[in-house]
Design a protein that fits this description.
single chain; about 375 residues; mainly beta; 8-stranded antiparallel β-sheet; 4 helices; 28 strands
Length: about 375
C-alpha cells in the first residue's frame, strides 16, 4: 500500500459530572441480567451497579494526539501519540510526565502496552523502518529499541500482550497475508511468525492504526485482528497465539479504504464487541458496531448502534453487559452487551481502556486524556 493510501487509513472536556455519572450507572437489574450466552447473575452486583463519575479531563501540557493508551490502574496510565510523544501518570492524572524516547519526535506512536508503572512497550507505525518498537523498564527514564522493521512492504498497526512475556504485533498484508510479529520475553526481542496458517487478505484490505485496538487478546492464547478497506469488514481469530487464523465477515460495512472495523474488545475468549464505520467526517456510519458470543465465529449487528464512526471500545470492569465506545464525535454506552448504544458524552476521544480496579481512561486529539471512575 502506498504511503498516501495508508495515511488516509490511519487518520481517522466532554460533558463530565452528573449527566455522565447517571448514564454510566449500570442498574442493579442489568447486573444480574443474562449475558450474551444466557449466563444470568454473573456480574458482581456491588461493582456492576456502581455509579461512574463521568469523564474528567486532565492537564497533559501537550497538544499531541493520543491513539495509544494503556490503563494500569486508577493511578497509573500511559499514553502514546503523535510526534513521538509518550506520557505517564502515577497519580491518577493529576500530573503527567513526558517520558518520550529520545530522538523519537519524527515517529508516530499508535499503541502502548504497559505492565505496571515502570514497564511498558510502545509501537511506532509507518512504512519500512518507521515501524519500530521500544521498551522501558524504568518508567520511561530510558528506552531500548527492540524492533525496527527492515521490510519496506510492511506497515505495523497494533500490538497486544497475553501476559508479561508473550505478545504479538501485526502488519498490513505483505505478499497477500497479514504479517505477525511475536515476542516471548516481554518485548525485548521479536520474530516474524510463519504465515502458513494465515488466510489470504482481501484486495485492498488492511488494519487501522486508530486506537491500538485492531489487535486484541483475551486469556493466554486467543487473539483477534480487525480489518477494513476490503469488500467486507472482517475479524480474524487465532487460538494459538498467532500461528493459525480463521477469518469471519462482520456486519460492519467496508468496501472503501476509510471503512471497516477499527476497534475490538473481548471480555473473555467468547464475548466481544467490534466498532468502526467510516472515519471521514462527511460520511455516515450505519451499523457501526457488532457483537459476538462465540469467539468471533459469527457477528450480529447491534440493534441500535452508535450514531457515528467509533474507533475505540472497552468493557467496563467486572461487567458482562456494560461497555464504552469512543470516537471523534462522542462516547457511547451499552448496558446490554453491545446490542444497543446511547451517546453519553459529545467529547472527542480516539481510544478507551478500563482497569480491574474500576477506572476507565480515554485519550484523543489535542492532548485530551480523561479519567472516569466509580462514583
Amino acid at each position: 500500500m502506498t504511503s498516501k493510501g495508508k495515511t488516509r487509513r490511519v487518520m481517522a472536556a466532554g460533558l463530565a459530572g452528573a449527566a455522565l455519572a447517571a448514564a454510566l450507572t449500570v442498574p442493579a437489574e442489568a447486573a444480574g441480567r443474562a449475558g450474551q450466552d444466557g449466563e444470568a447473575g454473573q456480574d458482581r452486583p456491588a461493582r456492576a451497579g456502581a455509579a461512574w463519575g463521568g469523564w474528567r479531563l486532565t492537564e497533559t501540557g501537550t497538544d499531541a494526539r493520543f491513539r495509544g493508551l494503556a490503563a494500569v490502574s486508577g493511578s497509573v496510565a500511559w499514553a502514546a501519540g503523535s510526534r513521538g510523544t509518550v506520557l505517564r501518570t502515577t497519580d491518577g492524572g493529576a500530573s503527567w510526565r513526558n517520558v518520550s524516547p529520545p530522538e523519537a519526535a519524527g515517529l508516530e506512536f499508535r499503541d502502548v502496552e504497559a505492565f505496571d508503572a515502570r514497564r511498558a512497550v510502545v509501537l511506532a507505525i509507518g512504512e519500512g523502518d518507521a515501524s519500530r518498537i521500544f521498551r522501558t523498564e524504568d518508567g520511561g527514564a530510558t528506552w531500548t529499541e527492540s524492533f525496527r522493521n527492515p521490510d519496506p512492504r510492511a506497515f505495523y498497526d497494533c500490538m497486544t500482550f497475553f501476559d508479561r512475556r508473550h505478545g504479538l504485533a501485526m502488519s498490513d498484508p505483505v505478499d497477500g497475508k497479514y504479517r505477525i510479529l511475536s515476542t516471548r520475553d516481554g518485548g525485548r526481542s521479536w520474530e516474524v511468525l510463519p504465515d502458513a496458517g494465515m488466510p489470504a487478505a482481501l484486495p485492498g484490505e488492511a488494519g487501522f492504526a486508530a486506537s491500538g485496538q485492531c489487535l486484541v487478546s483475551a486469556g493466554p492464547r486467543d487473539v483477534w485482528l480487525a480489518t477494513g478497506g476490503g469488500a467486507t469488514g472482517r475479524v480474524l481469530h487465532s487460538a494459538d497465539r498467532g500461528l493459525t487464523w480463521t477469518a469471519t465477515e462482520t456486519t460492519v460495512p467496508a468496501g472503501e479504504g476509510a471503512k471497516g472495523v477499527f476497534g475490538l474488545a473481548f471480555r473473555d475468549r467468547r464475548h466481544g464487541i467490534a466498532v468502526g464505520g467510516d472515519y471521514r467526517k462527511d460520511q455516515p456510519s450505519p451499523l457501526a458496531a457488532a457483537v459476538t458470543g462465540d469467539a468471533g465465529r459469527t457477528w450480529t449487528a447491534s440493534a441500535t448502534p452508535p450514531p457515528a464512526y467509533r474507533s475505540g471500545v472497552a468493557w467496563l470492569p467486572h461487567s458482562r453487559s456494560a461497555a464504552l465506545a469512543v470516537g471523534p464525535t462522542g462516547t457511547d454506552l451499552t448496558t446490554d452487551g453491545g446490542r444497543t448504544w446511547r451517546t453519553v458524552d459529545p467529547g472527542s476521544y480516539d481510544t478507551v481502556d478500563c482497569t480491574p480496579d474500576g477506572s476507565c481512561w480515554a485519550a484523543g486529539e489535542k492532548g485530551r486524556i480523561a479519567r472516569a471512575e466509580r462514583g
